[in-house]
Amino acid sequence: MSKLKYRLILIALLTVASVAALIPRDVTVKRRDAEGVLREVTEKRVPLKRGLDLQGGMYLALEVDNSKQAVADKSEAIDRAIKTVRNRIEGFGVSEAIVQKSGDDRIEVLLPGVTDQERATSVVREQAFLKFQIVDKTQALERVLPRLDAIVRQRNLAADRPAAAAPRPAAATKGLQGLLTGADSAADTARVASADSVVPGTGAFSSAIQQGGMVGEYFVREADVPMVTRFLEDSAVRSALPPAKEVHWGSDSTVMAGARYRPLYVVDARPIITGDYLTDARPNTSPLEGTIVQFQLNNVGGRRFGNETAKHIGDYMAIVLDNRVMGRPPVIQGRITTNGQITMAGRDLAAAQDLALVLRAGALPVPLMVAEVRSIGPSLGQDSIRKGVRAGLLGLAMVVIIMIAYYRLSGVLSVLGLAFYALTTLAALALFDATLTLPGIAGFILSIGMAVDANFLQFERIREELDRGKTVRTAIDEGFKNSLSAIVDSHVTTALTGAVLYQYGTGPVQGFAVTLVVGVVSSMLSAVFVVRTFFMLWLTRSRGTATLSI
Amino acid sequence: MLRILHNTQIDFIGRWRQVAVVIASLLLPAVVWIVVSSARGGLSESFKLGIEFTGGTVVQYDFPVPPSIERVRNTVTAAGFAGAEVQTFGAPNQILVRAQEHEEQAIGGAESAAQVITAALRGEFADNLPAVSRTDAIGPRVGAELRRNAIIAMLISFAVTLLYLAWRFDARLALAAVFANVHDIIATFAFIKYAQIELSLFVVGGILTVIGYSLNDKVVVFDRVRELLRQRARRPLRDTLNLAINQTLPRTVLTGTTVIACLLSVIFLGGEVLRPFALVLLFGIVIGTFSSIFVASPLLLLIEKKWPRQDGETKGMSRALAEERKRERADPVTTR
Questions:
Q1: pLDDT tens digits for A467-512?
Q2: How many contacts (CB atoms, under 8 Å) link A and B?
Q3: Chain B residues lying within 8 Å of A463, measured CB to CB
Q4: Which residue among A106, A200, A223, B200 has the highest number of C-beta atoms inside a 10 angstrom radius?
Q5: ipTM score here?
Q6: Per-domain residue ranges for chain A?
């Protein structure tokens, strides 16, 4: 009797604890309202952590990009990069965001509630290596063009060049240059003319590029950009480029005479200053230049910048972010010290906000690339939850009907055990802070069907014992005892599979594995302990009963 | 007392020949089909692999009004994704676009495939502006890694369960169970192939669950075999196996019913994403139950007869085998 009392107390305690763990409570979350302002919102929710596939959000996996430069120690590089990524995500203002290292060479970023994929990826992956470089004024590229053409021909790099972009009438080129240089000084036009005589227009390289509005600026038709990029990536071409110079694409293309062109700049390789000295960056709008990002340098940087700009008055200064020239390089009109600005050439304020953010958070020590993106809108997640709950309720209802129709009173006891099972499983998920995913919901529904397996084993065994003419009490005892080994073995094999699935699965599948393993433990507890206790209770209540409703 | 399949005395073992013919005629074509197409173009030729394994981009769009699939397809093709698949997903206004391309987005690199497709569709359907409800983009390297992990996971779960069963029962029972399990896996893959289900990470999770469930089922039958052997009755091994199957038959059918009931409710109410997974599980669970009866048990008889154990006496197996030989001599036709 006393043994039964302790069992009942234990079950009551477990039930109360489970309910307590699942009571909806106030949670404060940061959320962007309709105007994009971050606010703290308090809401009541069941303390079950929902995965990104249920609440909507984005998952990003970043890896070191060693296509441009070899990275010796990836793991160490990731450790350094993760701090910067974390700073940026904090600035981006996502509550409950997670930035973590996964394996040796990967950063995982989880952004609940974020669905603007473009913005989030660019904030995370931008290396944000800022430098200021003087645009080349020595026509260094023109001097090596014949050699570049020869290399391109020799190495057959222009093999699949589109025919439409082949020889272009000289008049059209002239007209285009007139368009470009119209606003500039006569000296510039003269230089363009002299440059024109240098560009023979025969080789694949030189006919793809055209002199721009300033020395060191060239234009490439948008259709030719992939080809020229390929040229520039070729090792022989790279070694033939002018020494102590760098070639960078411009960030924005322009439309001239009905065609899209992308600017290409030749700049001095030595930057006059880098973003290392930057202390602050703020987005702004100015009536003249549109959207801008204003930045501040520290004193050391300001002094250096001042000296360098004083030396280069009248030159063009390219603002290079991640090897792309931002906007058109402005002319240096005087000494610039601690304050400067980057014009955003027609981009919106959000783009300026993001650029300011990545500049403030600092440059990434290594370039990163996006290896995996998963993003799910919030309505789809809610839809999944609704469908999952509906399927679960139907499945549960069918199991309850089968149990009670087939086993009568014993079926009712088993359904009580099933309720205990469902409750403790959910509570365990909440307590372990496990994340409930859509596959997890599927796993939970499946486990409802499997949880009663133990009861079938027990009840069928009890029936067999009764068939052998045993008394109700002995049949129950023997039935539970003799079915135990099969129950333990079958649960252990399922748990082992679940553990393997957890170890080698990723994301959502891990969520499934967690519910499976937690479910197996609860199901054992429910069948072997709770349902058994209910039977013991029934036995004491109906002393001397000769029949069992099973 | 409501009872199904009570005191059945079906000779399951005696029918192993017919069953073997049925299994072979169903599975062999599928196996040949899979092997031939794999030899021609690798795994992606024989199965419709999910983008988790191949790398690629899937975008799900929510259109206010159901669009013309043909027009969506043309737009996607014009945007430079000629091989992309376009289909509805659950509802006519839900459009799924799947492209094999995934450019690993390096710093300042090209726009992602998803962004290009979205921009093209927004341009084309300006009066029926689609919202992006889901994007999955996976790089080829991650894909290769996930593929490797999925295969490792299957092999390890085999090894782990084999060891557990060998420890809890013995090596012969474990071997029979795991062989039957291999049969289940092949049959499930054949089903995936016949039904043209996409082999995604999630479906692989389903296959692993089938492994667990199927072993579970074999454990229950073999547990009863072990118990019957301990009685040391004058019973040939084949009768012991038949008795064990018949005695556990009500449980087998009942558990199958509740699990299938749950799976059916997921198939009908759980939504598009869960359906392939639930279908694979449904099939796998039926086949796993079938193989406990018709594959694992005859296999055990075969193994015990071919390689009689040394410690058979302790588990009542020697007696059962001696009876089995007696029966074979008395009745050589039915015991073949």
A1: 999 999 999 999 999 999 889 988 888 888 888 888 877 666 777 7
A2: 253
A3: 1, 3
A4: B200
A5: 0.87
A6: 2-20+378-541, 132-363
